[in-house]
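User: I need a structural model of histidine kinase from Ramlibacter cellulosilyticus for a docking pre-check later this week. Nothing fancy, just the predicted structure tokens so I can convert them on my end. Input:
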Amino acid sequence: MPHNAIPAHVLLVDDQPANLLALEAALDSLGVNLVRAVSGTQALAALEKQDFAAVLLDVRMPGMDGFEVAREIRSRARSRFTPILFVTAGDDPDEAMLSAYALGAVDFLSKPLRSEVLQAKVGVFVELYRSKEELRVRERRDFEQRLEAKEERYRALFESIDEGFCVVKLLRGPDGEVYDLRYEEANEAFSMHTGLENPVGKTMRELVPGYEGTRFPVYDRVARTGEATRFVQEDRTMQRWFDIYASRLGAPGGDLVAVLFSDITQRLLAEQDLRRLNEELAQANRRKTEFLATLAHELRNPLAPLSNGLHLMRMASTKPELLEKTRQMMERQIQHMVHLVDDLLDVARISTGKVELRRSRIDLRDVVATAVETSASLVEAGGHQLTVDVPDEPLPMDADPTRIAQVVSNLLNNAAKYTPQAGRIALQVRVEGNEAVLSVSDTGIGLAPDALDKVFEMFAQVPGAGKPQGGLGIGLSLVQSLVALHGGSVSASSRGPGQGSTFAVRLPLLSPDSEVTTLMSQPASSTQPDQLHVLVVDDNTDAAESLGVLLDIEGHAAHIAHTGAEALQLAQTQPLDVVFLDIGLPDMTGYDVAKRMRLLPSMQKTLLVALTGWGTEDDRQRTRDAGFDRHLTKPAELPAVEELLRAAAQAKRDG
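Assistant: Understood. Predicted structure tokens for histidine kinase:
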């Protein structure tokens, strides 16, 4: 703004209108706003409303003279430094002048006034006033610019932080208690962390109806004490967790609180998941340790009777009855070990999704009868009373009979194990809609409510259950997995510890007119096979020799090799009809041996049988790719071996 454009005001105070008119005429050329006052009271009122570059004050006025008015002007903050020029027509100007200067006057003018002198003196104070105003305007403009720059930096910082930030005004009731808060400011991240849009000017209860007010006491304490605080709190109404830092803004009593916060719901959920996973891993590790200890115990148990049996067979070679009894005992122990190993293999197959179901159209009644027969020895050993209730009408199913029999047998075995001596076990089958419901109930140790789901977990040990009949604790887990593979379900129920348990299996039934494609095995030939030249290749000397003895007893010519090199040497010098080949040999794999054998002209029609502890479909495919004809899992059962020998003999006869 130009210097001359700055408005300036001069106050003219005189009780005589003629004198005021003369003053106005003398000062008109200064370009200022001349304000009249005909009394001291009127002059003081004008000074309260605005600032003046100078005051021309008549000394002699009725009521309040010029000196009294000057004294009042100097006593007020707004006009304390306003220049006062006294105008007088008195007889003793020297005495009046001294009084005027004592009151802070800047000049004393005597009438009659010379207009050019008056104009020059007032003009000095007008210029001084305009200079001061110009400086004040410039300083104000600079201050506003600095303030605007700071505001821009503050706003940029305010919006750049990724945490939510807001300034809230606490709203108090008549009792002084905080009942709500109003958002005065909020950054863009506020909505991201809270999900609340356009919060400024709105209250918390407007934005979140039904808000519980859990943070109000904390903000109240911060506003009252001025002590900042940080806390983590769940907002149930908003279904979020927040990490909050709150501090007071301004002086006490202003009730303004600055809040910096972030939504940590996902972080807390992740931490909860991590803790849960750690707990599950720790629990799984405990189960693994318990399982390995149980497995070692269960596998060690048959070793003592087997070792004792070997001693008895050496000592009682002349006592046929004792030999037969010992043989039966050893067969039972071996079958027990085979059963344990089969369970472990089933667990591995099911866990990797490689279990194979050999489905066919079956009658559930026949499978139940087979399972009851399988479990009869364990039920009888416990002195239990078993009742079986099965419908008379057929129960057709599309299922693997061996696996369903395993399900029923495992449930019966479980009931027998966990029922005290001379208990009662009931097996019932009924039809509900298109499902068969098979239940096994007992009067055993029962289950606590929190153990009903745990009994189906792999390797889990239900507290207080114990293991009175041994086992690996995987039978019920196998039941659940095998039933699920058949499209069914299994559940457990119990009235509590000591009150028995019931396990119910639901399996889908076939309609009577449905057709199922079945895989039927060809009946084995009943004719006695011709002698075969059979090579057994296994680095386990006992396994190879025992199979060789069985082959000799069957009337075949058995040859034994313990390495791949020995097997290849025998294959080049001896015509062979059948080769039982172990996959894990010390010098080369059975796959490599099979591939080299297939390169020999004499081995093109030889039946190659893989012997291995692995029986998944991938393992079988690998043996087929290596040139094997058949795949047997260890320990190979005698009926399977005999079937292979009959097939080889038949092929040899057919040429």
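Before docking, keep this in mind: The CA atoms of residues 610 and 631 lie 5 Å apart.
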